[in-house]
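Project outcomes to date are best conveyed with an example. Our students and postdoctoral researchers have been running inverse folding experiments weekly, and each run begins with a structure described purely in tokens. The record below, which covers 417 residues, was selected by the lab manager from last quarter's runs and is presented without edits.
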């Protein structure tokens, strides 16, 4: 990995993969609901959309033509704390790919007509979105207003309130020095791409930062939230907040714990809740990192009549991990984080994804292969014992039946057993 800081404040991560035949370029910007004002929730997602409506002097039709004539597609994605534009090309089209990214970095004078047209697209997307998402509501439940603005798409109210001036000012704020990184992986030599990178992207005049990155996560004291929704199902999110210092110290251990618990068809949640008890086919875990914490979350959707048995089964599995971690489960988890890294050497897109995860999102050095291999079952057990406690948990429940907070507090106490 070669890390280069361009004069305009862009950090470039170069990861040559000599046995590949393509190059993946991922432009990453600190943006998303964790950097939005509550009244402007959804502005990052709308900004992403606008880059596909028009790009510099290119119309939408011209943009699509320029992409397709080099055999690629520009992809844009908005996450809670990241805005990403990504393109994969053959090496001979590197300069053309850089031209596209250069146009993204430069200010785009969208017309009011373009703005209204793309805003209508986003509002239509919102109208088709399921109203209640326990995983999304969980973030609103965990973080206080001012730390997390709301859902990635925003709401109909906040998106309707946005105007073109708001978006242009926001782009100036987030596309500024120190908030933009470029990840490049694939078939190139580092010394061969530095000159075109410097000439095309390094020459883009990024403004000085107008707002510091938020450095403190503010958490709510209310641990349980319930929402009534129509239908026969209950969606739930059980979240555990991990302070950044602990998450950084136990990066590899948390990866393995999450894998053993619910990642993959052979995980404990899948085997017990889905296969043995047959309570739900929709249950999974995710481990997300934010500026000052990490959140390990278990999401599941279940027929309302099965909600409490499902929740109790999840608690029982966690309590089991606090007592003993099966050596076989640990042995099955390690290869995904150790030996399987070899897969990345054949895939520039996956290599970029992993580099972005560690260097940009987590802001931490990637644990070595040996650090995963040297973790014992007892280390995972101790981590589970410290983490899976009622005082660390947030529970968000969207149910077709009214469930009292008092009864859910009683259920949370099962984590002490």
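After processing, the design step wrote out the following sequence:
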């Amino acid at each position: 990995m070669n890390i280069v800081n361009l004069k305009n404040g862009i950090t470039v991560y170069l990861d040559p993969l000599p046995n590949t035949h393509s190059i993946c370029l991922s432009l990453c910007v600190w943006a998303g609901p964790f950097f939005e004002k509550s009244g402007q929730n959804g502005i990052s997602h709308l900004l992403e959309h606008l880059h596909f409506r028009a790009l510099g002097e290119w119309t939408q039709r011209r943009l699509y033509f320029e992409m397709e004539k080099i055999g690629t597609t520009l992809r844009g994605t908005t996450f809670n704390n990241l805005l990403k534009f990504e393109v994969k090309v053959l090496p001979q089209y590197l300069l053309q790919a850089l031209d596209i990214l250069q146009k993204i970095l430069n200010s785009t004078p969208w017309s009011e007509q373009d703005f209204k047209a793309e805003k209508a697209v986003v509002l239509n997307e919102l109208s088709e979105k399921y109203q209640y998402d326990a995983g999304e509501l969980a973030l609103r439940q965990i973080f206080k207003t001012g730390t997390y603005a709301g859902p990635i798409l925003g709401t109909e109210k906040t998106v309707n309130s946005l105007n073109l001036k708001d978006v242009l000012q926001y782009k100036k704020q987030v596309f500024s020095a120190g908030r933009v990184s470029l990840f490049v992986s694939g078939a190139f030599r580092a010394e061969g791409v530095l000159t075109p990178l410097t000439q095309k992207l390094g020459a883009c005049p990024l403004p000085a930062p107008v707002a510091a990155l938020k450095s403190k996560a503010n958490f709510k004291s209310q641990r349980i939230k319930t929402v009534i929704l129509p239908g026969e199902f209950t969606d739930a999110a059980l979240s555990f907040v991990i302070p950044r210092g602990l998450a950084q110290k136990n990066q590899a251990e948390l990866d393995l714990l999450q894998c053993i618990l619910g990642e993959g068809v052979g995980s404990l949640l899948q085997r017990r809740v889905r296969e043995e008890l047959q309570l739900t086919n929709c249950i999974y875990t995710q481990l997300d990192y934010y500026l000052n914490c990490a959140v390990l979350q278990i999401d599941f959707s279940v027929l309302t009549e099965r909600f409490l048995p499902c929740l109790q089964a999840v608690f029982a599995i966690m309590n089991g991990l606090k007592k003993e971690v099966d050596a076989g489960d640990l042995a099955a988890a390690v290869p995904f984080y150790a030996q399987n890294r070899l897969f990345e050497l054949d895939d520039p897109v996956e290599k970029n994804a992993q580099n972005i995860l560690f260097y940009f999102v987590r802001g931490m050095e990637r644990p070595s292969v040996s650090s995963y291999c040297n973790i014992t079952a007892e280390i995972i057990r101790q981590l589970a014992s410290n983490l899976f406690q009622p005082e660390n948990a947030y529970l968000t429940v969207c149910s077709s039946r009214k469930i009292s907070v008092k009864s859910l507090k009683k259920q949370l106490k099962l984590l002490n057993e």
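The longest helix spans residues 112-128. The chain has a mean pLDDT of 93. The training component of this project remains on track.
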